[in-house]
Amino acid sequence: MTTSSGSHRDEPSTTADEREMLDGWLDYHRATLLWKCEGLQDEELRRTPLAPSELSLLGLVRHMAEVERYWFRQIMLGEDVPDLFVTDEDRDGDFHFTGAATWAEAEQAWRTEVERARRAAAGRSLDLVSKAESHHRGEVFSLRWVYTHMIEEYARHNGHADLLREQIDGATGE
Fold this sequence. Notes:
- There is one protein chain.
- The chain is an all-alpha fold and 174 residues long.
- It has a single domain, classed as Four Helix Bundle (Hemerythrin (Met), subunit A) (Up-down Bundle).
- Helices cover 52% and strands 0% of the residues.
- The radius of gyration is 16 Å and the shape is globular.
């Protein structure tokens, strides 16, 4: 499927094996989030048009960079890497930013974390259990669970992105 600006989202295979299916759906939802941001200026991406919600497209991309980093690197691999935007003082720092925050910065952080997540998962069994426990739940997770959760996380936030984009400039689309 080609988006309005010419970028491409690959439809996931309907007959793939489990790993290819999970990779396909995760990549599809990653591409969907970027598509929802295409063609907008920084000011529009920072906009929070659904008051009282603090959600913005820029915040969603920053949030998903944090989520990619958290689940694939901090939890699955047990890497001791700091959060990107979140702090102890502001647990929603991915959504809180100044007028100086840019799309270029957020997109680069997101692309970097997606690439690192792909490397973290590459060649590993879906049955692999995480090296770290979630600080939210105190449990370990299989790589299969992380993939499924990431697809759910993107799908939920892509719904938010649909609403935000429509409020910003009226653009709609699946």
